[in-house]
Amino acid sequence: MKKALGIAGGVLGILVLAGLGYLLAWPVPIDPVAWEAPEAPAAEGVYAPNDALAGVTVLPVPDGDHGPEDLHVLGDHVYGGTDAGWIVRWPVSGGPPEPVVDTGGRPLGLHVDPHGRLIIADAFKGLLRLEPNGSLTTLCDHAHDGSKLVFTDDVDIASDGTIWFTDASTRHDQHVWKRDILESRPNGRLLRWRPDNPHCEVVLDELYFANGVALSESGEFVLINETTRYRVTRMWLAGDKEGQTEILIDNLPGFPDGISRGEDGIFWIALGSTRNATVDGLAGQPFLRKVVQRLPDALKPAPVRHPYIVGVDATGRVVRTLQDPGGTRYGMTTSAQQHGDRLYLGSLAEPAAAWIDL
Hints:
β15 and β16 (231-236) form a beta hairpin. By secondary structure, this protein is mainly β. The strands form 6 sheets. It has a 4-stranded antiparallel beta sheet with strand order 1-24-23-22, with no helix packed on it. The protein is globular, with a radius of gyration of 22 Å. The longest helix is centred in the N-terminal third of the chain and has 24 residues, at 2-25. The mean pLDDT is 94. It is 13% helix and 39% strand. It contains 4 helices and 24 strands. It has a single domain (57-357), classed as 6 Propeller (Neuraminidase).
């Protein structure tokens, strides 16, 4: 009996050592960089909790699907892209979703060009255009320098048809997006497609998870959400500051995902999750972030169920927040698109889109 217990104890010891060895030394596909996360802003003042999103109207996607990350209104319908690769639409007046086209990838950002055609940022297929006959045209799946688009994310379109879009990460695709969060390196970039020169030009690189993108009404500047730095960067496209970049707003209370231009000069920023004290605490510990990468997904930090929209003006001043701590009806917001008096909400995780009357 003692011999058996001794053998069992020895085996257990070997397993413990093997587990420790795995957690401490097993190769990982990330190369984290140390940085100092700012202290999260207090949940007071304009950031004080509210229940403005508790009464949203949900727009379910087809059964078994989920994740209409971004939305756009075109005519009498609201369009969204799902995790299964479908572009679906809902009647603005209400009704069930209708399938439109299967991209064969993962549609994320959506916008309509000046000719009324839907432009799609597909995480795996690149920049796509939905033609009036229902077919898809690939505008580009590589940048002009020959580099592949790894994680095509969000899109906005200027009045002259120029398409601005983000490649969230040149190292980690959408299937493993959490790796880029843990790595926290400037792997993202901003690109541009022009109707008269249809090559996807890299305009800005070394962005920290380049996510949402939005143009000012005049086209004087473009905004890019840098998710892993809790900030929105502005690049000037005209005027005395043309070509310069600056921070529009820093130290947001969560991870900025989508951004869109609304009305009255407001830009709506959707936070995919509120700040995570563990993630912030690990900012200066790249070795420990490698340990986290080796953990099962169930043990890694996860987004918090707290839909959260921040409205800022062109100076970076926060003018309004819309929240629902606990996510009464909707758990995660990754986009916010204003159309008239409605604000449409998208989500990477929810089995529905949503809207609220502003």
